[in-house]
């Protein structure tokens, strides 16, 4: 499944995005949750151009692509 969010705001530099991933709460939290729930099967991609906007893509595996073991492991880690 692919979720895409686009905006036409101010955009962000690569450095600003990297700082957000390293030191911010939001991006780091999303990436950790994706990793916890889906492992390497999920992706968060951010593309941004100053003064043109930002596109964020989140790729998630379909439920049919996940085994029961993944859901049980997720419940132990998160629940």
Task: Offer a concise description of the structure.
The protein has 79 residues and is of the alpha+beta class. The chain has three helices and three strands; from the N terminus they run βααββα.
Task: Write a concise keyword list for the protein shown above.
TATA-Binding Protein, flat, 79 residues, single chain, three-stranded antiparallel β-sheet, 3 helices
Task: Provide a descriptive summary of the structure in words.
The protein is α+β, with helices and mostly antiparallel strands and 79 residues long. It has one domain: TATA-Binding Protein (2-Layer Sandwich), CATH 3.30.310. Helix content is 43%, strand content 25%. The protein has helices spanning 14-23, 26-38, 68-78, and strands at residues 2-7, 43-49, 53-59. It has a three-stranded antiparallel sheet, covered by helices on one side. The longest helix has 13 residues, at 26-38. The chain is flat, with a radius of gyration of 15 Å.
Report the uncertain regions: none
N-end to C-end Cα span: 24 Å
Largest sheet: 3 strands, antiparallel
- CA gyration radius, whole angstroms: 15 Å
Topology readout:
Elements: E1 2-7, H1 14-23, H2 26-38, E2 43-49, E3 53-59, H3 68-78
Antiparallel strand pairs: 1-3, 2-3
């Amino acid at each position: 499944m692919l979720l895409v969010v686009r905006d036409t705001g101010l955009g962000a530099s690569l450095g600003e995005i990297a700082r957000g991933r390293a030191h911010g709460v939001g991006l780091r939290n999303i990436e950790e949750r994706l990793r916890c729930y889906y492992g390497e099967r999920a992706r968060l991609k951010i593309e941004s151009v100053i003064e043109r906007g930002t596109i964020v893509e989140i790729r998630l595996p379909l439920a049919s692509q996940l085994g029961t073991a993944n859901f049980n492991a997720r419940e132990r880690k998160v629940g």
